[in-house]
Task: structure prediction
Amino acid sequence: MKTLKVGICGWGNVATGMFNAIESNNNYITKAGVDINIACIGARRDNPKCNPGATPIFRDIFDIPEQDIDVVVELIGGVEVARELILKSIRAGKHVITANKAVIFNHGDEIFAEANKNKVKVLFEAAVCAGTPIVKMLKEELAPNKIKKISGMLNGTSNFILSNMEEGNEFDDTLELAQKEGYAEPDPSFDIEGVDAAHKIGLLSSIAYGSSLPPKDFYIEGITKIDKKDFIYAEMLGYTIKHLAISEDNEDKIELRAHPALVSKKSYLANLKGVRNGIEVDTDLIGKIHIAGSGAGQESTASGLISDIIHLANSNEDILNVVSSINQKPIKDFGEFSFQYYFFIEAEDNPGVMASITTRLAEESIGIESMVQKDELGKNIVPIILITDIFKEDKLEGIKDKILSLDTIKNLRTIRIESTD
Amino acid sequence: MKTLKVGICGWGNVATGMFNAIESNNNYITKAGVDINIACIGARRDNPKCNPGATPIFRDIFDIPEQDIDVVVELIGGVEVARELILKSIRAGKHVITANKAVIFNHGDEIFAEANKNKVKVLFEAAVCAGTPIVKMLKEELAPNKIKKISGMLNGTSNFILSNMEEGNEFDDTLELAQKEGYAEPDPSFDIEGVDAAHKIGLLSSIAYGSSLPPKDFYIEGITKIDKKDFIYAEMLGYTIKHLAISEDNEDKIELRAHPALVSKKSYLANLKGVRNGIEVDTDLIGKIHIAGSGAGQESTASGLISDIIHLANSNEDILNVVSSINQKPIKDFGEFSFQYYFFIEAEDNPGVMASITTRLAEESIGIESMVQKDELGKNIVPIILITDIFKEDKLEGIKDKILSLDTIKNLRTIRIESTD
Result:
């Protein structure tokens, strides 16, 4: 049995959740070989929901790294102060465990380099999908494999909203429901604009491919432009719509992106509904691995944090952070990607309109896989749904402008199609 | 970087697969902090499919533990000779990694006790679902949790056959196809009789609940009595049929069993098709975790074995095997379980037959949730399908006998229903 003395910085929901779980599940934790001793807490104020008993609370979180502890658990959130706290802890020879994806995304390279210099570890299982184990799985269980592609629904709020829209509900109503159920923040922009998912795939890409933290800018789009009708048209064509975060190793570049996409209704990711997170990892030896579980929540996050403490106790002290790259490839420009696209077009209902659209596409050498014209909007306006052949992303905006410049076209939106098998 | 000197015992498909994967994926393995040095091989004969280069081959596998190595990878299969080899390796101070579920199932307690005495580790990730990571996940990533229930489709052959029967094919044709595709052995009895799945759930139960290895006898039933028509009737009632291996912690006993069951078509396990393995782990902190991937195959097994070597290099030498129990509860007798049951009855088509069946059930205080009579067999014989209310397993045989004793009843089979949510 190894004893680890832990200092917790931050005393909100996640911190108290961890504190309580260490108490309630102590027999499971000791079975895994670790005796966790919460030695001190850093928090500006008490939390009426949790009494830490005899554990001293320091009002200045920066006092915590100076205590006689083995590891600092950083749960203050935010980026710049968290970075300072983590760096101070590292320089004081403390291991660091964090659930803070934003600070690792933005300052990971600096933090891991400093940690390796000081021979301590920085662990962040809970930063990606809370307690659902994906970080350590990539680092160890899947380590013998070439990771070909990681595709995930990494934001529970987005998945909840899209799953509800698939059932016929409006975006706004569903967002409101998500807020009521506690699945979305009062300011939901990080979730619904794709930033949260982008942070998480940035971290996973760093583990799998050694891409830098922060990574070079990559394409991030949220779910706010999806209309509930898109689900109806997507379904007619055998698809549903998911918000995906993807990283892929191709020959000379790393692909990294987060955006909504049509995915085949038969695919694994299409069938993951609700607030859960789900990940598909395509490997060379095992093939495709699927893992799904809760991606947020006080208790699930506590599990991820405690599993890092257990890992710390069970792991070889000489093995440091292996996040930095062995093979730093550049990140592929988004314009270089190629997709099939879903086009939703509202057009005047006249005999020439289909010809005028297909002509514009043909001028750009873009073929059409399928085309459906629906008669339902009334007022002489019809929706036209296209699935294009594959073409390069950097042609997309030009093509949209060209179609929208036609007098008969009233509206146009596009969604990329993610190929699955 | 830590170097580990490895001796391989056995030189068949799995061993050569591991040998090749260590060579082909060496850059991924070294990125995880390990330099694997295959120091020697123990094999009665060469393998024409794999040339080990300068690595010496010993004709007596029992010479391997005597070499200057850190770890013996046991890949000879079988039980008794494997046990001897593992014990000799342990006593020679070598760590042991094995993909051999049968030897761990039958002699785990003895092997782990001996390993702890000799301060070495015995790892067996590849013994359950090949490279799909479930063993280490239970040991570490999920370790902070109370594991409430583990439900898995742990035998790829059975899952392949049942998925094909669901599509309308006969058992025999599907088994033949599975053999042709390499998913089933020439003698498939271990797979289709449920023994392979039972071995795997025994191992997982030992990790999660500390049940002994070998465990006390528990209920094991294979898929050979399932008829393709059962899928049609199950579907009418909202179910499909899967072969499940289940371990569950209830208040004072451990539940352990492997048998076919009707599961709701909406459940996670119902939607896993084909030869893959899939597991649902119900935990108190994270909630339900799902993981699915290949459960067999040369390369997938190699991944599991190599991940154990990586784990060995990265883990604290002082932490030994935590398989033995902290809280050894007895295994629940199968007769004490309660289920809803699916009854398939072939009866003479006369007006009194339904009444005679329901009367027999009523005499035993067994209620009926639904009852369907189909008219399709011709010759005055009709199939009657019942879903019963929950009753105790130890009443089942008596009830079957009672119904079968009716002159009008020609055939009766039952399948348990696994409740899911």
In short: Chain B touches chain A through 57 residues (CB under 8 Å). The domain at 2-131+300-314 of chain B is CATH 3.40.50.720 (Rossmann fold). Residues 189 and 195 of chain B are 8 Å apart (CA to CA). The mean pLDDT of chain B is 93.
